[in-house]
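Ops channel
N.P.: pipeline sanity check, posting one input/output pair.
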């Protein structure tokens, strides 16, 4: 089942009406930016919970700023439109929301300024993004991560995902589940569409924002959960390729991938070739958090349907 509606041209319309011309600027030059947001179904409460809704729209508007978009919507407006759309869809299961800002002009001419800014949002029921969440076999890509001074990875830019697509296709055609991409100076950046962490001697390490990563929301959540719940120190610093090989655990994080254990890199087994204890704990914790089962993080989850039953433990 796909979604039936889209926010398009300033209102919610049947998805078949949400169409653009082949001449559209973003279609030709990749001059758009987008988000990927998950909503999780909570069976006990009969409720759909959107995870980190505001934070996704804050990042969306940051991407817009980098790309010279000036949308007539605030974070609050975009949240309200999204909830309206999902209510209209009536999803009762895990779902995915895709906001997309694009330059709607139908003209030839590559630039970012003096163009018409448009936004669309659509949603779809959604399960797993990668099959191998419990144990991915990956390789280090021969493709390098785009640099902040070329196409900034900090913004979720449509055209930048060609870099991700190169890496993902190379990995999969070579028989791997995913790619780890190095940046121009040879340090680990991230996966094709996920951030990366290693665990060494009880310390959780992830590349800093300045190593050409997307500043992932799941990454921020994982850092917070490691510190506040698991009591593990977290360090943001550059990671060498061979540190991956000798790490106790390596994992990906992202809205799509959620938290995925990496059990093999460049045909070397990581941590004995099976999911390690930190990843296991984090996955258990994460799925409780996103389904709204941890009162202290409940505010990260926005209920879609009205008359939300109040969960036990919340005043
Ligand atoms: N890096 C890239 C390139 C991505 O596309 C994504 C997915 N949005 C991530 C990292 C993870 O970011 P987040 O946790 O915010 O989904």
């Amino acid at each position: 089942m796909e979604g039936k509606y889209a926010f398009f041209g300033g209102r919610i319309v049947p998805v078949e009406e949400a169409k653009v011309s082949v001449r559209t600027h973003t279609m030709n030059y990749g001059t758009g930016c987008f988000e990927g947001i998950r909503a999780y179904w909570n069976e006990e409460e009969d409720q759909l919970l959107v995870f980190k809704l505001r934070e996704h729209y804050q990042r969306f508007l940051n991407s817009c700023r980098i790309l010279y978009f000036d949308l007539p919507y605030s974070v609050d407006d975009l949240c309200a439109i999204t909830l309206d759309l999902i209510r209209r869809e009536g999803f009762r299961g895990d779902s995915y929301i895709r906001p997309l800002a694009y330059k709607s002009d139908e003209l030839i001419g590559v630039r970012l300024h003096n163009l018409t800014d448009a936004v669309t949002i659509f949603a779809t029921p959604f399960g797993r993004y990668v099959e191998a969440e419990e144990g991915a076999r990956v390789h280090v890509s021969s493709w390098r991560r785009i640099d902040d001074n070329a196409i900034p990875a900090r913004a979720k830019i449509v055209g930048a995902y060609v870099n991700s697509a190169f890496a993902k296709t190379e990995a999969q055609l070579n028989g791997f589940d995913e790619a780890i991409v190095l940046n121009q100076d040879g340090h680990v950046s991230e996966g094709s569409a996920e951030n990366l962490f290693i665990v060494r001697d009880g310390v959780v390490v992830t590349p800093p924002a300045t190593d050409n990563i997307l500043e992932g929301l799941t990454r921020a959540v994982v850092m917070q959960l490691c510190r506040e719940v698991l009591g593990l120190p977290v360090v943001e610093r550059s990671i060498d390729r061979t540190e991956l090989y000798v790490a106790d655990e390596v994992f990906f994080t992202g809205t799509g991938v959620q938290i995925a254990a990496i059990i093999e890199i460049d045909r070397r087994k990581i941590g004995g070739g099976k999911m390690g204890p930190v990843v296991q704990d984090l996955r258990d914790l994460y799925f409780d958090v996103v389904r709204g089962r941890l009162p202290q993080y409940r505010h990260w989850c926005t209920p879609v349907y009205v008359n939300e039953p109040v969960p036990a433990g919340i005043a």
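N.P.: looks fine end to end. The domain at 136-290 is CATH 3.20.10.10 (D-amino Acid Aminotransferase; Chain A, domain 2).
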